[in-house]
Amino acid sequence: MTIAKKLAVILVKTGVILSVAAFSAPAAGAEPTPQTFPDGTYLVNQRLPSGTYRSNGKGYWCYWRRSDDNGNIIDNHFGYSGGVVTIQASDYQFNSSGCGGWTALDPNNLPALPVAQQVAPKKDGYYVVGLDIAPGVWKSNGLSSSCYWARYDLTQDINDNEIGYAGTVVTIRADDFEFYTKGCGVWTMIDTNNLPALSLAQQRAPKRSGSYVIGLDMAPGRWRSNSLDMNCYWAEQTITQDIIDNHFGAGSVVVDIPATVFEFKTARCGIWVLTTGVGESISSTAVTQSTGTAVTPAIRSSATCPSANVCILSPASGLKVGRGNVVVFTGTAAGQGFARYQFQAGNGAAWGHIADFNKPVVNGTLMELHTDSLPPGTYTIRLQVIGISGNSSADKAQVVLTIQ
User: Fold this and answer.
1) For FRET with 359, which of 11, 38, 185, 347 sits at 20 to 30 Å CA-CA?
2) Whole-number pLDDT of residue 33
3) Which residues are bridge partners to 356 per DSSP?
């Protein structure tokens, strides 16, 4: 169920310029030196030597582009000043505006800041690795849902990037040349061998959309989400942001997060709750988690148990329960040709998807339904088994549930 992780670049190598005329500046009157030059338009290797340069500005409206002799864009940038550009000898023209001028930078002889300054917290902006920022593991503390970071090589090609919730982690490598961040809050370098872990109770508390370091923000274990959103995304990642496993699709899913996972990321999956798991045998009496009130087992009937392979043992049909509870469904979902089982909720007019599970269960826990995931009302909760052919079983078990 692995899907692609990396994201398209926001504004590079697209050939699209945001109002080029507005950003184009006339050629500078004075000849540039090999070490510094102002914003303007320059012919490469005639008025401007090729090489690596860093902008001196502090603003948010820096635009530059490298182009060929036909005016086609080779690479461009619009956004924060302070970034680096490597002008190739094969480029024809370089143009910049709002970047505050440029200073040559020798990649082999970087004027590095003291280590204490390199490891100090970092805000939005560009940082040359080994000059402004130390390689290592960094964690952001922002609250934005549009945190963006990118690791670049010397020629501004992206080594890795990501956009999503702040609070995430990035491992900046020694062979990265530049790091860029926007909307992530403040980045702090962390020691992965001495994580400032939250209390166990805080790590086990329910989790919403965001990024969580396992053993620091979130406990390892089996977690279940309660969302009905069909765009639920989660990912388990290594310390270097490589994906171990991920999912995009229906919510109300279960994921096992081992202690070997470094970071767990989630979006649009609702609330995650640490659980004992699905498929484990339990007694025929289910319990609502928030109240501890016993739920009477269902009386077997053709509706609740139409066959030995499709059966809801509990809760009993007709159960009334308040919001903020978790109703445990137990029973059996199995049979020859089994692929998965599915729960749906019907309101008399249509059926809506609740959850799918891909492991058969015999006399065990089928699902934990968070009552907050459905509006108040009376529902028929239906269980059906899906075979490897993709067809659902003729037998369907169902109970009536009222959420007050």
Assistant:
1) 347
2) 55
3) 342
Q: Strand pairing partners for 51? A: 87
3-state secondary structure 130-154: CCCECCEEEEECCCCCCEEEEEECC
Residue type, 209: S
Q: Which pairs from 147-151 meet CB under 8 Å and 24+ separation?
A: 147/181, 147/182, 147/183, 147/184, 147/185, 148/10, 148/180, 148/181, 148/182, 148/183, 148/184, 149/179, 149/180, 149/181, 149/182, 149/184, 150/9, 150/179, 150/180, 150/181, 151/176, 151/178, 151/179
Q: Which of 289, 277, 283 is nearest to 253 (CA)?
A: 277
Q: Report whether 326 contacts 353 (CB < 8 A).
A: no
Q: Which of 126, 120, 132, 247 is nearest to 187 (CA)?
A: 120
pLDDT at residue 300 in the model = 59
Six-digit token pair at 324? Answer: 């903020």
In angstroms, the CA 313 to CA 286 distance is 9
Residue 181 vs residue 359, higher pLDDT: 181
Distance CA 100, CA 61 (A): 10
Average pLDDT over residues 251-277: 85
Q: Look up residue 33 and give its two tokens.
A: 């030196």
Can the peptide bond before residue 297 be classed as cis, meaning omega within 30 degrees of 0?
no
- The pTM for the full model equals 0.62
- Sequence-distant (6+) residues with CB within 8 A of 159 are 151, 152, 153, 173, 176
Task: Return the pLDDT at 213.
Answer: 94
What value does the mean pLDDT take over residues 232-258? Answer: 89
Determine the Cα–Cα distance for residues 157 and 128; give it in Å rounded to an integer. Answer: 14
pLDDT digits (tens, 9 = 90+) for 332-369: 999 999 999 999 988 877 788 787 888 899 998 898 88
Secondary structure element (H or E) that encloses residue 178, with its range: strand 178-182
Largest Cα separation within the chain, whole Å, is 91
The pLDDT value recorded for residue 276 is 58
b/e per residue 211-222 (b: at least 16 CB within 10 A)? bbbbbbbbbbbe
Task: Give the integer Cα–Cα distance in Å for 393 and 305.
Answer: 13
Contact present, 89 and 29 (Cβ < 8 Å): no
Average pLDDT for residues 6-16, to the nearest whole number? 36
Tokens of 310: 């499709």
Q: Which residues contact 75 (CB under 8 A, 6 or more apart)?
A: 12, 13, 65, 66, 85, 156
In eight-state DSSP terms, residue 369 is: E
Could you tell me which residues are beta bridge partners of residue 182? Answer: 148
